[in-house]
Every structure is written in C-alpha cells, then in structure tokens.
Amino acid sequence: MPLPVSFSPAFNSRITVSYQRAARKVPLFSTEECKAVISWATTKSFTAVNEPGKGASQYKLLRCGREAWNPRVLAFQQKLEAIVEDLNHEIWRFDITEFLNVDILRYEVGDRVPLHVDLGINTYDVKLGVFVQLSPGNAYKGGTLRYGGAPPLEAASRAQGALLILPAWVPHHVTTVTAGTRYSAVCWAVGPSFR
Prior knowledge:
The protein is α+β, with helices and mostly antiparallel strands. The protein has 3 helices and 15 strands. Strands 1, 2, 3, 4, 5, 6, 8, 12 and 15 form a 9-stranded antiparallel sheet that branches. It has a 4-stranded antiparallel sheet with strand order 7-13-10-11, with no helix packed on it. The longest helix is centred in the middle third of the chain and has 22 residues, at 71-92. 30% of the residues are buried.
C-alpha cells in the first residue's frame, strides 16, 4: 500500500526529536478524518477505566476491534499504521511485527491518566505508543498529554490531527480534564522483546 503522505527531506525536517527519540509531527490527519472517527465513536459504548486503588473514573475507553470499523475509520487506521511504519524505519528501526487495534479514548471532566510507561512485565512486547489528537484543542480544558523523563515534561500538540509517537519506555500522562470532552486515538506497535 503506498504511503498516504510524502516523507521528503523537507517534510522530515518538521519532525521534532524531543526525548529519547520521541517523534512529534505536524498534523497528519485532516479535520474531516478526525471528525469521522469521533462521529463513529459517539455511537458506541465506552467503558470507564479506574485508576488502581481509586474509585474515580480515569477515562472512558472504547476498544475497537477491526471488524467493528466502518470503511472511513478503517482507512484512518491503515493510514496511521503506514505513517508509523515509515517513521519507525527512519528513526528507531525497532523490530515491529504488528499493530494492536486502535483504542478511542474519551476524557470527560475529572478524567486523567497517571504517569506511566507502556513497557512492563505484561507488556514486554510493546515498542511504540502512538497517539492521535482527535478533538480540536479548544474543545476542552486541561487534558494535556505530557511526556518525557524529568520535569518539566513536554506537552504534546493540541492541534487536531497531530500525531505523537513514543518509545514504550518514555513516561507520559494526561492531566485532569477540567472542562469539555477530549477524544484521542491510541494504538501500540509491538514486536519481540528489546535485546
């Protein structure tokens, strides 16, 4: 499948290598593509995910099996995978064997994600975490995706359609949403354990 965007040297110059080769790019998904995913997601049920040891909801998660995608949303996932494969080849060259299904996250007032890394005992095969900003940045307050190894953490772009890719060992969190609703899409590229 041909790549949906051109990765010429001029385009690559817009990649920011921020922390341990974390790549942040300018928006790659159009407003229409983001709206299509949100529109599809609003017709589905979300599950509250609780923070360990606490009763309050952390965020609302919709796990999306590929058989449940409509054609426009499936095209979104295929484009996302093609971009990540190309960036991995250019930047990290990790051994990636597959992509896990995209999850759509809906953050409402009070929702947050504590600081964590994606690489762990039960997630030893995760290589890259992939995040797409679906909501317009002014649709909510708070809810900032931050990442990095030491304070102050970098703030991910709030531009609708922005893409952030992090190696699995990079700490990240989402601050508490104080107003509005935030939607994002996440998936993970996996492969054999790091050696």
